[in-house]
Amino acid sequence: MNTSYLLVLLVLTFGSLINSIKWARFAQREHYLGGSVTKFYFRWVKSRTSNYLFYIALLISGVVSLWLYYFPIIVVVLTLITPFGLSFSARTSKVENTERLLRVNKVYYFIIISISAVSLVVELGYLLALLANMFSYFVYDQCLKILYNYEKSLTQHFVDDASSKLKKLQIPIVAITGSYSKTTTKNVLHQILSTQNSVFSTKESFNNRLGIAKAINEDLKDSNELAIIEMGTYGIGEIREICSWVRPHIAVITGIAPVHLERMKSLENILDAKSEIVELAGSVVINGDDELLLNQARLWTNQKLVFDCSITSNQAMVFVDFQNGTHSIFVKGKKLLTVDAPELLQLSIALSTGVLLALDLNVSEYFSKITSLDKTSHRQSVITSDLGHKIIDNSFNSNPMAIEHSLKLFSDESTTDSKKYLVTPGMIELGSDQFSLNYAFGVESSKVIDQALVIGHTNKNSLLLAFQENNIPAYWFPNRTEAVNYLNTIIKKEDVVLFENDLPDHYP
To answer: Which domain holds residue 481?
Structure first.
């Protein structure tokens, strides 16, 4: 191999190694799922016309490189800047150099360097290194798949330790899942039970296999009398696996909604995945206003105690009625007590009451010790800015079920003099319903707001179309920072701003 070809080979290899910085962010944010890097790569490519052009130019340059030895340098440049807009640094999803990520990168580096070494040995020139550079995102995905089973076995001792700890304590365990309000319900239940008991609960977002194990191993104390464990899922079988060693006594399902449809494909799959939490539990507490869930619960009544909790029907076992800032709690049609708390907590209060009944605890006694119930951060929190205007912060996450509550709160916090601004990238992970559900969000928002600031490319077309058709002034910004900078130039003290969702920056 002559010097020119060797130099090109080195440039291609080095370019592929640098690209790992971008792919690592995709991989870590998507929980190291094999295939996620390629999926998000093409999501960025399809997000804007310029990226289509860059990608086509990349493919053409790759073909030309077979004849012109200096063209691979153009390929390297194109792979570094494609997809355009995806920077090597990050705003929201900063890469943490965990041991797992380092192992993935080591395997990736090994494969990339090995490809170049093979090219040298068998005298293939730079062909293999060229392909590896052009499709480095695919190579990174294969590294994730190669390491999947190894990573799981490597961390099994953490799970075993957590399981042993739970078995040793032999305390009642409440497991909570659902498409929405998991964390809020966990926090409300923790506040109520903690008035009289030493309660352990998993930290915010520590709701997968390793997160739960980590929380138990680090924070569960011998003095704890109850445990509350939040469980999330991205697929069938995940919750079943967690429950096999957590072994909850009481299962809580907050509701089923089209969240994570991109991964789960259908509401029926979501229902099946969430229902796995019930299998080992003796008692089940459900959102009785959810028809899918209520129908499913009929299959459980012969084997388990089912507590249906409602915020709309006084026929449910637990009914919580909200009026004028006060929640009235009814059990089997009998009013037990009232509690002052934000309307957002209505469902969580109902489900928490169901858990108290399942634990055979005195509902009135526990609620009587409550002085206040706090909302979870970034869930429809109302704050006042330094400039004096009100901000409704619902930036943690957004789903179709939460939209109605956010918009109602928007209206409640406004006056006749207020101008109402919506700042949002829309909702994500909705699969084939992505466009239609975000369009519907835009239509509903148009009934309340005066102006919309749309962020990012993901839902740009659906949201702007909805606002345009409903005569709402709407402006598009590539990121949140630019949107906020613009907002600060026009907002007045009496105005109200709703931040609905915060798009992770591995989304376009």
So the answer is: 381-500
